[in-house]
Amino acid sequence: MQNQKNDQWTTKLGFILSSAGAAVGLGAIWKFPYMTGMNGGGAFFFLFILFTIVIGLPLLIAEFVIGRGSGREAVSAYKFLAPKTGWSIIGKWGVLGSFLLMSFYSVVGGWVLIYSGLSIVGMIIKEDVVYEQLFATITGSPVITLLGLAGFLAINITVVSMGIKGGIEKASKILMPLLFIFFIILVIRAVTFEGAVEGIQFFLQPDFSQITGESILYALGQSFFSLAVGFSVMVTYSSYLGKDVSLPMSATSVSLMNIFVSLLAGLAIFPVVFSFGLTPAEGPGLLFMVLPEAFSQMPFGELFLSLFLLLFLFAILTSSFSMLEIITSAFTANKARSRTRVAIIAGTIIFFAGIPAALSSSHMAEVKLFGLTVFDATDFLVSNMLLPGGCLLIALFIGFKMDKELIKKEFYYSNNLPVGLFPMWFQIMRWIAPVTIIIVFLGSLGII
């Protein structure tokens, strides 16, 4: 079994924080606030929590079980567990999905990298700066966006070339807690703004009249996106895990962290949105307009903004590391290829694939796919088509193909969970998760 002993997680906490880092990135901090703003506020948040607990968490456990049960990266895991069958398509699906996800994810990562650099040199918080115009200027400049894209991918290539440990685990133990601390500081400041109550009510009081079939699909997709499930990323991560870690408890910790960060993101963003008369449905640029506004009202605001952006950048990077890792590990599984060479080639191809998304606010703004810019179309395809599709396949694989005794062993290793918990989880994977995903998807298309 290819459980890569030379490159295992050193501690349970390191694995949990690194997995949380893979999940808590753009999904929870960048995408969640604007998706919530565009889909009715509190009702969307309620659906997001519901889907995360009922569907997302069980699927995260499933990916952990597949990864540690096989001791292999995503593509090889399914080949090992279901030899001479077509189930390896799930791993290939994940590699393709991660590639497409990286192509627009890295664009946003480039934005954060640029904002971090500008903040460090004191170029963001100024009296004459209009933050909406600053964001439009940065995203509308082909040179700036492409430099940001290249820089972000260069960091990914460097770290992934060094292997799974390569400093990520150690850094996660320090920087992820710091991210929580700075988020809490920002929330405390945000909720004290005049007019903040209206923003809190928008975020926490569900108005189900705002919910449509499409917004239900978005909430389901957001729960998958923010937990990094569906593309077998967590299969690859858990393949480096020893038997002394409880998979259900680890998955629960990651899911709760993700919900908590999403809560903090909403409480940090929406009070400021309403206090300064911004539109909650502002879209992908919401975070880049609101954060500087909030920090500008604080003592030493530029310093705090710089620190937060750097920590946010790290959270994004830990997510993107996992995506590039699944691609790299898939092509180095037999150790016939150099990890560094594969990471460089993959990163370079992703750069060229990401150019249309990077130029969606400038030279390619008029290029539309089904009425959406390349950036938005890629985001929709990944979040609302490929991720749910990958989750459906994983649920069916666990429920109907993988050896049930092996699943049960992996489920119960290193924990004292109630005996009845496994049958309940297994039935969720076999019936509830697949049926829910299919119903929500067909409902969004207006078929049912």
From TrEMBL:
Pfam families, per database record: SNF
Key word Transport present: yes
InterPro entries attached to this UniProt entry: Na/ntran_symport, SNS_sf, YocR/YhdH-like
Annotated membrane topology: Multi-pass membrane protein
A cellular-component GO term for this protein: membrane
MF terms (GO), sorted A to Z: symporter activity
Transmembrane segment boundaries: 12-30, 42-66, 93-114, 134-162, 174-196, 216-235, 256-278, 298-321, 342-360, 380-400, 421-447
Keyword Repeat annotated: no
UniProt keyword list: Membrane, Symport, Transmembrane, Transmembrane helix, Transport
SUPFAM superfamilies associated with the record: SNF-like
Subcellular location: Membrane
PANTHER family per record: TRANSPORTER (PTHR42948)
Similarity comment: Belongs to the sodium:neurotransmitter symporter (SNF) (TC 2.A.22) family.
Protein name, UniProt field: Transporter
Species assigned in the record: Oceanobacillus limi
